[in-house]
Amino acid sequence: MTTQWKTYLDQTKPPGAIVDFSAAAFVLQVAINLRFALNFVEATPECHYLAERVMASAEIYGQARQAGSAPSFTDAEKALAEAVTLLAIEMKHCPSASHRADVPLNPSYPAATSQPTTIDRNPFGHASL
User: Fold this and answer.
1) CA 34/CA 36 separation, integer angstroms
2) Taking a C-beta distance cutoff of 8 angstroms, is the pair 126, 19 a contact?
3) What digits encode the pLDDT tens for the residues 64-117?
4) Phi and psi, residue 18, nearest 5°
């Protein structure tokens, strides 16, 4: 099970150089993948705290990147990477929750848990605000 949650957690990292970056789409991508990743483990209160920290870091990163401020963008990217790393370390110590991970969040879209959600491969096309 470890590799399954890790696959989703890896999608919370910054997308790299893309031309049409959307802070809102990135934060949504992070939220969806965090939820899927947390479904694979019996999350502890520490896991939930660190997941919230990842979300906050993703929001700050998205805002800094969209604003184009190089110093704050670099700091935000480091903070996001650190938050994801700390969450991964905590999740390694959580027991597996395979009974919950097999249940899709949206029963009308059964393939929802088969692939991580990314900005460039989401079923709704490109989001820009």
Assistant:
1) 5
2) no
3) 888 877 778 889 989 999 999 999 999 988 888 765 544 444 444 444 445 555
4) -130, 145
